[in-house]
Design brief:
The chain is α+β, with helices and mostly antiparallel strands. Helices cover about 25% and strands about 30% of the residues. The chain has helices spanning about 1-20, 25-40, 45-55, and strands spanning about 70-75, 80-85, 90-95, 100-105, 120, 125-130, 135-140, 145-150, 155-160, 165-170. The protein has a four-stranded antiparallel beta sheet with strand order 1-2-3-4, with no helix packed on it. It has a four-stranded antiparallel beta sheet with strand order 5-6-7-8, with no helix packed on it. Strands 9-10 form a two-stranded antiparallel ribbon. A hairpin with a 6-residue loop joins β9 and β10 (about 165-170). α1 (about 1-20) runs antiparallel to α2 and α2 (about 25-40) runs antiparallel to α3.
């Protein structure tokens, strides 16, 4: 039993050491390595790397601009964009470095809480949003609304089909 614990600790510390060396160059990778290390065996070293990686930029981005709280955020599948959905009736498109690209304006009520209130297409070229204003909207990356899908009740979630040929919406209407 002691030998197994020593082996786990040595393996965890080996991964945590690699994570530590990555902190300045790739804090996100450092975090993931430290997280994997911690799952093997919690040690002071992997805890230290986890805490240090939180403080590193670009691991942590502060996206400012919504005028009310943010209810959802998501990276695009290609990792180049971020979309945030707000209780201020808007979604915002950001680049991966946290720079605002455009505000997706048009909804007249807050976007719902939780996943699927704003989502990227699988090719990262389009965004779907939904709102309590009984609409779902399709946007391009320039912030142009390409389509409005109307319901008779609040729209709670949206998604794209895997082949990009269909859009699915879920609403409180019947």
């Amino acid at each position: 039993r002691l030998q197994e614990e020593i082996i786990r600790t040595a393996k965890a510390n080996g991964i945590a050491t690699k994570a530590y060396t990555m902190l300045e160059h790739d804090p996100t990778l450092a975090f993931r390595l430290a997280e994997a290390s911690y799952k093997i065996e919690p040690t002071p070293l992997n805890k230290q790397v986890l805490m240090a990686s939180y403080a590193q930029v670009p691991f942590y981005l502060k996206l400012e601009g919504h005028t009310n709280w943010v209810v959802y955020s998501e990276y695009s599948p290609d990792g180049n964009y971020i979309v945030t959905a707000g209780n201020d009736n808007d979604a915002r498109l950001w680049d991966k470095n946290g720079n605002l690209i455009t505000v997706l304006k048009g909804h007249t009520a807050p976007l719902p809480y939780g996943p699927k209130s704003s989502i990227f297409s699988y090719d990262s070229k389009y965004i779907l949003t939904c709102s309590r204003d009984s609409t779902a909207r399709l946007w391009n990356l320039q912030g142009e609304c390409l389509a409005i899908m109307k319901h008779n009740g609040p729209v709670n979630s949206v998604c794209f089909s895997h082949d990009h040929t269909k859009i699915l919406t879920a609403s409180s209407d019947k």
